[in-house]
Amino acid sequence: MNHQQLDEYLRKFDYIEEVQIKTGNNVNDFDGHELLIESGSNIPRMQEEYFFHRGPIFINKHHRFADMPLHIHSFIEINYVYSGICKQIINEKEITLTKGQVCLLDTDVPHSIPALGKDDILINIIMKKETFSTAFWTQFTGKGVVSEFLLNALTENQVHDRYILFHSQDNDELQYTIKKVLCEFFDPSDYSLEIVSALLPVLFIELMRIYQLDKNFESEEKIGRTNIMEILHYIERNYKECTLTSLAKQFNFNSNYLGNMLKERTGKTFIELLQSQKMVRASVLLKNTSKSIGEIAFEIGYESSSFFHRKFKDHYGCTPNHYRKKK
C-alpha cells in the first residue's frame, strides 16, 4: 500500500459508516459487548480483549457520522487527525484537533467524540500500557530534564487532565512515519508488525521534538511568554553555572515563586532538577569517553570526586565505575 492507496482506503465508507450516515446512530465494531459498565462506575469501559489478537498494537479508522459515547479504557490511545478536524470531550473539556495533530490519552480518561463529517478522518492507535512503556519510556530515560518531564507527564502526581495535545501539523517527518505505520498495518505483509513496532519509537522521538503541549500543561496563570518547557531547556543547556537566582532573573520571576512552580509542575526542586541533569551528562561521558572519574566530576561542576560518587550512586544505584563497565 502506498500513500495514494492509503488515502483512498481511509476516505472510502466502510460498512459501519454506511449504516451510521443513514441512521446517525453509533454502531459497535464487534458484538455489542465491547462497552460494558463495570461495578462501581457509571462510565462504560471498552474491553481490551477485542483489540490485541494480532499483537500489542491495534490501529483503526474512527467511524464517521455518529457520536462516539463517553467511555474509558485501560490502554493508551493515540489519536491522529489524518484529514479535517476532530472535536473531543476529554474530562468534560472540549478540545479541537486539526489535520496532522496528535492527542495522546492516558488510561481511564473519560472521553467522547462528536460525529465526524465526511472529510474528517481520525486514526486511533491503541496499545497496552506496557507496550507504551517499552516503546517510549525506555527510549528516553537518562536524556535530560526535558525528556524526564515528558516521561512523567502522564503520571498521577502531575497537574494536568491526563492527555497531551501535540501541535504536530507542520512536522513532515511525523506525518510520514505515521502514514508508513498505517500502510503496514492496514495492508500487512511479511514482517509488517515488526516494522510497526520498530517505527513506534521513531514516532515518539518526533513527538518529543515538537514539545509544544496543550494548555493543560501550561500554568493556570499566564506567565508572560514563558512556559515550563523553556525553563527546563534552559536548565539543560546551562546546568553547570545555573542557580535559582540566575534562572529567576533570566525569566523575570521571583526566586521563591519560581522554585515553588518548578516543584509543583515537575515534582522536583530546582536543586533536584540540576542534579538530575548533571547525572545525565555524567552518564553520557562515562559511556562515550575515556575521561577519568575526576575529570567527569569536574566537567559537570563538582570539585569533589567523592561527592560526585555519592550523588551518582544515589541517582543510578551504582558507582560511576560500575556504570561504565555495564555500558
UniProtKB/TrEMBL annotation:
GO MF terms, alphabetically ordered: DNA-binding transcription factor activity; sequence-specific DNA binding
Residue span(s) of domain HTH araC/xylS-type: 229-326
Keywords in alphabetical order: DNA-binding, Transcription, Transcription regulation
Keyword DNA damage on entry: no
Domain of life: Bacteria
Keyword presence, Transcription: yes
Pfam families in alphabetical order: AraC_binding, HTH_18
SUPFAM superfamilies documented for this protein: Homeodomain-like, Regulatory protein AraC
CDD domains: cupin_Lmo2851-like_N
Protein name: AraC family transcriptional regulator
Organism for this UniProt entry: Niallia nealsonii
